[in-house]
Amino acid sequence: MFKIDPSANRINPLQVKRFSDLGFTERKHLQEWLENYPQALTQGDGEELLIIQKEFDGFDDTRERLDLLAIDKDGNLVIIENKLDDSGRDVVWQALKYASYCANLKKQQVVEIFQRYLNQKAQNEGIAPADAESVLLEFLQADDLQSVQLNTLKSQRLILVAAHYRKEVTNTVLWLSQFGVNCQCFKVTPYQAGAELFLNVEQIIPTPEASDFMIGMMAKEAEEKSASNEQKSRHTLRLAFWEQTLEAFGRSNCSLFNNISPAKDHWLNAGSGISGMGYQLIFGKNEVRVGLSMQSSRAEANRFVFDRLQTMKSQIETAFGNELVWLPLPDKIACRIQYEKSVDGYNKANWPEMIEWLVGHMTRLEKALSGPLDKVRQELKTTNFSKEPGTEHDA
């Protein structure tokens, strides 16, 4: 760091000092500076911190004290630990302990802690103390305490302050960030130029440039975790639906799915007598569907069966009792014939009606397609793609 001399148009280096060399102590000086100017730890990014206690020792069964306790604009408690010239090797563990103690603090306890702090300040200054609840509500821009989200689960933040950080400390902080622990490290360096003293406060973890990236990565990880949980939930839901559906088929006259097991997928297939082409049940969030899916590895075989069945479309649809949807899907290998119903599929109250619909319409579809499929199967044997490569069983 340099001091600019405008008159001489020169810069002069400032002398780096140690706090101990200047006679400064952690408790009487650094802590006092940050208590009265917490903006030094916000790096000018618009964030505000409100100090609500210092030398806080209100933990059960322990005499430990955290240096400064603050709250941010989102109502998160911020544990601030100061270590002057050297961070020491245990500062992270110390801060984590304090965070775990503070995590149990209820809203009213936070207000009481802040009120004790305001009372002590007022006593020292010989003035009437401010009302903690009013100050908090003004800071959080809230109308009443009941509506405030204060010290919610897993919201505690850590701020470490020191002139020098040991590698084991920075490595641990970076590792904790992967688990969503919000921990910042600020490097504080005193400088001297003649009789003048200066203090530089610099955020080193995460660096200001990396903060947005890390926040984005944590948000992405949270999104992926949410998606994974959603997928697991859907798998459980589908498995339950298919169990009930297969039980209903077992009691019906349709034997297609007698040897099929429930699965976590949104579909179930049963053989039609032609390899790679099966009857299909679909269970979705917004629909249930019955159909015949021609999805062998040979597009020409799928299209041959589809085209031959389509020549019997009128006969098939008359037997089925409704018009079917015919999907040649020219850009894909597969072809489909299907019939669907719009539903609120994930509402379990609708399942009995949906299952009854699937059983009834698959029974009708099998009867409508059994004769035509027998004819197509015989014709398929005379073609040069009559068998699936490497397969000898039906889909």
Commentary on this structure:
It is a single chain. This protein is an alpha+beta fold. The protein is 39% helix and 24% strand. It has helices at 26-36, 91-102, 107-125, 132-140, 167-177, 208-250, 299-310, 313-320, 351-380; strands spanning 2-5, 10-13, 15-16, 49-56, 66-72, 77-82, 157-162, 182-193, 196-205, 267-274, 277-283, 287-294, 325-327, 335-342. Strands 3, 4, 5, 6, 7, 8 and 9 form a 7-stranded mixed sheet that branches. Strands 10-11-12-14-13 form a 5-stranded antiparallel sheet. A hairpin with a 2-residue loop joins strand 10 and strand 11. The longest helix is centred in the middle third of the chain and has 43 residues, at 208-250. It is elongated and about 105 Å long. The N and C termini lie far apart (75 Å).
Q: Write down the secondary-structure element order.
A: EEEHEEEHHHEHEEHEEEHHEEH
- Compute the average pLDDT: 89
Number of contiguous helices? 9
Beta-strand share of residues: 15-25%
List keywords for this structure.
395 residues; alpha+beta; seven-stranded mixed β-sheet; five-stranded antiparallel β-sheet
In short:
With 395 residues, this protein is of the alpha+beta class. It contains nine helices and 14 strands.
Secondary-structure map with pairings?
Layout: E1 2-5, E2 10-13, E3 15-16, H1 26-36, E4 49-56, E5 66-72, E6 77-82, H2 91-102, H3 107-125, H4 132-140, E7 157-162, H5 167-177, E8 182-193, E9 196-205, H6 208-250, E10 267-274, E11 277-283, E12 287-294, H7 299-310, H8 313-320, E13 325-327, E14 335-342, H9 351-380
Parallel strand pairs: 6-7, 7-8
Antiparallel strand pairs: 1-2, 3-8, 4-5, 5-6, 8-9, 10-11, 11-12, 12-14, 13-14
